[in-house]
Amino acid sequence: MTQKRVLVTEKIAEEGLEILRRKGYAVDVRLDMAPEELAAAIAPYDALIVRSQTQVTPELLDAAANLKIIGRAGVTIDNIDVEAASERGVIVCNAPTSNIVSAAEHTMALLLACARRIPQADASMHAGSWERAAFTGTELYQKTLAIFGLGRIGGLVAERARGFGMRLVGHDPYCSPERAAALGVELFESVGDILPIADFITVHLPKTSETIGMFGPSELAAMKDGVVLVNCARGGIFDVDAVADFVAAGKVDAVGLDVYEEEPCHDSPLHEFDNALLTPHIAAVTREAQVRAGTQIAEYVWEGLEGSIVPTA
Ligand code: MLT
């Protein structure tokens, strides 16, 4: 029997690679391949494992003559053309719970860092200063946090924010009143009704035609003065050009972003503001999440290649 081949195009935990090798597969880790290079290399592989950077397009799938399964070592699958894969009989699976705690914790980290101006205070001390009044912050306690998207990650954020004594409001057309009540979130049907009452806004939404640009100039204008915005979900949900304008005008007190419309992102209209806290898509980059994602996806890829039923993404 010919040995099955797995191509891994982004860094996944060694524990996951080990599972695949122990199953007897030939595993090739080839990071940072250009799209043309990947298309030229993919034909012999039975499985492809990616994270969020590799774009799996119909063209790539056409070149993938032997491909049976694509494993996404993470939650979202917006870099994979799932429909094109299904049309070609290629299974797409993900690791849907692998990094949700890490994502929720990073959201809290950005909320707190924005509220207490941690990066600015740190930069000031590293520059040899001892300033205190310049970094007067805001408590989360008794402030209103609006959570857009009350799925797995939004729910974990709600639980954590409740521990800080925040009032929680939310919007999610797919969330039942029972779930919202269990999370302690007051559910609003209209986005417009939430914007003027939220001190902090965090989004936990997928990238879709409805969510991209969901918060543009008119939504920002409707927000409370001094609002703090956080996005650890997908780039583009907040229109960054508009956010930059409102940061410059002092309407937005701080913004914490982990995701960008174009990644890698080396420049954006927010780079010039020290109250824009920017992290390079690291919400899921914890040891624990990486091990979970790597091992979960390796197991699914193995099951898929051996003909078992795999929970598809
Ligand atoms: C995800 O969708 O799982 C996260 O954005 C993390 C990642 O892509 O690595």
From TrEMBL:
GO terms for molecular function: phosphoglycerate dehydrogenase activity. Pathway: Amino-acid biosynthesis; L-serine biosynthesis; L-serine from 3-phospho-D-glycerate: step 1/3. It catalyses: (R)-2-hydroxyglutarate + NAD(+) = 2-oxoglutarate + NADH + H(+); (2R)-3-phosphoglycerate + NAD(+) = 3-phosphooxypyruvate + NADH + H(+). Its EC number is 1.1.1.95. Keywords: Amino-acid biosynthesis, NAD, Oxidoreductase, Serine biosynthesis. Belongs to the D-isomer specific 2-hydroxyacid dehydrogenase family. Catalyzes the reversible oxidation of 3-phospho-D-glycerate to 3-phosphonooxypyruvate, the first step of the phosphorylated L-serine biosynthesis pathway. Also catalyzes the reversible oxidation of 2-hydroxyglutarate to 2-oxoglutarate. This is D-3-phosphoglycerate dehydrogenase. It comes from Adlercreutzia faecimuris.
